[in-house]
Amino acid sequence: MNTTTSRRKQSAPVAVVVNTLTTIQIDWLIAQQEGVAVIFDGAHVRYALSDENELGAIYSPSTDPALGHPLLEREKIQFRHIDCEGHSHHGLWLAQDCRFRATGRSVEWREYGCSYPEQDFGYLSGPTMMIAGLRFIIAKALAGKTKNPKVQVPGFLCNVKAA
């Protein structure tokens, strides 16, 4: 399946820092990665239907656990909530790869920095576990290993407020 744009003309892509991706941008990028045909109706990412005059159901793995959790489980993402006043990530969820889960050995968390710099992408954050994890999946697939991953997002998704 192909990901489609809204009925508007496609606009030029914009480089966006992964840790600042909105829920709509996350939903669009995950749909592309998963091969889900979607459209953008101006407010929501929706499943694309064969009849272009009909609107499909909202596709939102960033807010719908039935869509998002299986992706996090498949990718073996591990999480940590920071509840420490004064910490730069206070109140956020951090996500990182958990490569050794199948063997029973966990990737070690460190308060600052990465435990295995040659293997992991560092931490990606978000206000919820799902958003942090999906940002990590996007960075892993589209940006690779970099300290400040950026991805290309269609311009028409850059000025939209989340519903």
Automatic annotation (TrEMBL):
Full protein name: DUF2591 domain-containing protein
Superkingdom, taxonomy of origin: Bacteria
Keywords, in A-Z order: Plasmid
Source organism per UniProt: Pseudomonas putida
